[in-house]
Amino acid sequence: MRLLIYGLNYAPEPIGIGRYSGEMAPWLAARGHDVRVITAPPYYPAWKVGEGFSAATYTHRVESGVTVTRCPLWVPRRRSGINRILHLMSFALTSLPPLAWAGSTFRPDIVLTVAPALFCAPGGWLVAKLSGAKAWLHIQDFEVEAAFGLGLLDSDFARSFAVSTEEMLLRRFDRVSTITPRMRERLAAKGVSDSDTVLFPNWTDLETIRPLQTPSPRMEALRAELGLKKDTLVVLYSGNLGEKQGIETLVETARKLEQRSDIAVVLCGDGAAAARLGVLAETVRNLRLLPLQSAETFNDLLNLAQIHLLPQRSDAADLVMPSKLGAMLASGRPVVAGAREETALAREVADCGMIVPPEDSEAMAAAICRLADNAAERQRLGENARHRAETEWDRETLLSRFEAALLAICPNQG
User: Fold this and answer.
1) 231 and 132: one domain?
2) Distance between CA atoms of 369 and 373, rounded to whole angstroms?
3) 23: exposed, middle or buried (Cβ count in 10 Å: 0-12, 13-18, 19+)
């Protein structure tokens, strides 16, 4: 199978969509498929192009068995609604020439467009049709609804135009996949035939992320770096410090726990809200900040925690599924999640932790105290979390299913 993957985010971005696309492509290449990627230089979550990459030039190289073309990209310093649109448009425009060239010379069997950004969808669909390939769209989050729900855009005309355009595009692809059953239901509501949709959840590497029975040297070093006593209970959030996460709730939660000298709230990551959180953290005694950890030390970080935190803004419910959840579950620790009861996130966490109303710091603090004071309950929920990761988040299982779905529509198979 000749597969052309087209999307804004790719390895070596450490979290989010870039990590998943960056694991999927080499996995498929190792299975004997000819995989090529058209993407941008890594910039997320820091919103700064990574060292050794250029925002202004095209590059073409083989990475982990995959031919990767990177296209120029404008990365704004200020992330307003209009700047985000211009940012996405910059990649959609600069990527069109290499996308068209790949369509005519590589002659892919399938063009897989990964959204966000939906700005890439027209080009991905058109090149697929012109080259005789199948057009596949994979949706990691419903960016149009999220942009309006989170207040990044607020024009009624823009909303109507964006929603109608999105629905028109979705119905033109041969297949549309997404990451949760509830998001798949949204595709049906947008007019996509059920037979044309595929459930393709995100995953975690269960061999790399696993419970540790005894503290590692890196865990001890992290405790020392954070100034924590040996018996301090660590409550951890690790991931993007961005607008969709409801990070402010975690700061207020830490404030409400200040009288608990045995509990520390640790926020680890980078993103749009990082600088603002750094200022807020100076006023909260039991709040600690860490930069993103390397892939080699990530499991140590997860095992440092006795409880994981997963906030979500109420207006982002079922528009996104936090990719960080898989690693939390795989580490064998309970999760306290801010989510509405009817959401996919709540169902994922129901028997692995505690659900509290979104953006409710008082309820989140109360749930943390309950788990902090009940080691047996933490143990039980943590075991449930690991079991759920093994049954629902296994990388090999999910990628094998996706490969089969790709091959099922590949014109050169059978």
Assistant:
1) no
2) 6
3) middle
Domain that holds residue 403: 2-203+394-409
Q: What average pLDDT does range 368-390 have in this prediction? A: 97
In a domain, 208, yes or no: no
Does residue 280 fall inside a structural domain? Answer: yes
Looking at the structure, tell me whether residues 251 and 322 fall in a common domain: yes
| pLDDT tens readout for residues 79-114 | 777 888 899 999 999 999 999 999 999 999 999 999
Peptide bond into 311 cis (omega under 30): no
Does residue 240 form part of some domain? yes
Same domain assignment for residues 193 and 124: yes
Q: Considering its fold, how many domains does the chain have in total?
A: 2
According to DSSP H, which parts of 150-289 are helical? Answer: 156-170, 181-189, 217-226, 247-256, 274-281
| Claim to verify: residue 77 and residue 157 sit in the same structural domain | yes
Same domain? 230 vs 186 = no
Structure-block tokens of residue 46 = 């820091």
148: confidence class by pLDDT, cuts 50, 70, 90: low
Instruction: Record the tokens describing residue 243, joined without a space.
Output: 């607008």
Residue type, 135: A
50 with 160, same domain: the answer is yes
Structure token pair of residue 172: 């033109």
- Structure tokens that stand for 407 in this block: 């091959």
Three-class DSSP category at 240: strand
SS3 readout for 242-269: CCCCCHHHHHHHHHHCCCCCCEEEEEEE
Whole-model pTM: value is: 0.89
CATH of the domain at 196: 3.40.50.2000
Q: Residue 341 pLDDT more than 90?
A: no
Same-domain pairing of 166 and 242 = no
302 and 159 within one domain: no
Crossing angle for the helix pair 96-105 and 81-94, nearest 10 degrees? 30
- Cα–Cα distance, 263 to 373 (Å, whole number): 11
Pair of tokens at residue 129: 């049709």
Residue 337 near residue 345, CB atoms below 8 Å: yes
For residue 62, CA distances in Å to 3, 34, 327 come to 15, 12, 28
Q: How far apart are CA 35 and CA 139, in angstroms?
A: 19
Strands 287-290 and 307-310: unpaired
